[in-house]
Hints:
By secondary structure, the chain is an alpha+beta fold. The chain has helices spanning 4-22, 28-42, 53-59, 75-89, 124-136, 185-188, 192-209, 225-233, 239-245; strands spanning 26-27, 94-95, 102-103, 119-120, 154-160, 165-172, 175-182, 217-221.
Amino acid sequence: MVSQEKWDKMKRLIDELGEMVTRGPLPLQRMLEIRGFLMYVVRTYTWMNPYIKGMHNTIDSWREGRAEDGFKMTAKERRSIQALLAEAMGLPCRRAEGDGEEWATVVSPGTEEGVVLETVLPKERFLRDLEYLRELTSTTTPPKQLYWAAHESAFYVIGDASGKAKGSALVEQYGVDYESGAWNLEWRLKSSNCREVENLTDRLERLVQEGALQNHEVFLITDNSAFKGAYYKGHSPSRELSDIVF
């Protein structure tokens, strides 16, 4: 756990962020300073990491290639913007060899290279994160971080969600609890990464709600690197993956 002094400072900084939002554009330099301290505390309380993503998006929103919500533009969004800019500027669009996709040599929206703004506008994800950070830091004293499980037996949650189907298994000392099913049309249209993440996350959340994992060490097992990265980092460049982890 962090010291009482650092916990109190974090609570003050979160309150300061809330006040800054009410005054309009956010001073970029002060945002960077506050983020630096929050990241120090997050090293101890890693479960806060998903709620820092909105701050990252807001601080870096001035950079080239960022969408309106602060996330990095996808390749499809970049091509769409470039095509619109090229059309507005009267530049021809042609197809790149081999990939069949239109492209134009134009710069996507953003700030000129080497130019840093003094203020940034808060993004929707930041406002949402701020609400939860207030709740997570509402305790008077810093919470204790559990590093050793109370029970000797570990739980292993294994899942896969390729194609139209999904399945997951809970492996523990008394046996295996397996379930499987099919995705509805809405989820079939999403990326395979999203389905992999949702499959394991949904199973894990239901186990927590049932109280099955209380005081047990839990291992999530997946062959999906995107989920692994999002799980350990607490967020992802992908909007959908970040929302699922959130």
